[in-house]
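Hello again,

I reread your note about wanting to compare the complex against the isolated chains. To keep things tidy I'm splitting this into two emails, and this first one only covers the full assembly. Below are the input lines as submitted, including protein chains and any nucleic acid or small-molecule components. They are followed by the predicted structure of everything together. The single-chain runs will come separately.
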Amino acid sequence: KNEVEQSPQNLTAQEGEFITINCSYSVGISALHWLQQHPGGGIVSLFMLSSGKKKHGRLIATINIQEKHSSLHITASHPRDSAVYICAVERGGSNYKLTFGKGTLLTVNP
Amino acid sequence: KAGVTQTPRYLIKTRGQQVTLSCSPISGHRSVSWYQQTPGQGLQFLFEYFSETQRNKGNFPGRFSGRQFSNSRSEMNVSTLELGDSALYLCASSRYRQGGGNTEAFFGQGTRLTVV
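Full-complex prediction:
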């Protein structure tokens, strides 16, 4: 079993819909990251969370440390949101080592 | 502020050869980490460097190595290339956070390595 599980693997939505991507992990962590990867490879860091909730524009990320679960929400989705969204966890301590989920391929149709 | 720069962007090598990839972090970032991305395994951590020292290493064979220079630029080297080493290699840089750990990671565009 992977240490980081994402669901769903694939998600197709219509423009304007509310999107939720889930991430569950099985290890103790110091932080959780949500990343976005567009075709071509470039990865953008969306959020880094250790507790609570963060919001940036139409994106909201939440984390529940006790339940070892995080969600990424996209409000009023747009075709430009189409990308792979990757959850990654950082283990405790000052060293930096990310363990990644397999990613969620989001397609938003106009 | 310039982002993380990886060179080259694309590379084709033959089995048995070796390859060196370069990563220039964002100015002021002292942590550089490397990742391999393949369709089958997804993203996997290779190693992380901070102030010229390797602090963490993933589960990769010794053919994969790296180093970091005093200006924080980093290189990774893969020797005796195998077909399975074909992948997108990404590096990320981050700033050290007071109190421990690093700030969010900024990723480069990656180097796509094809081994034939």
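For quick reference: The first strand of chain A starts at residue 4 and ends at 7.

B.
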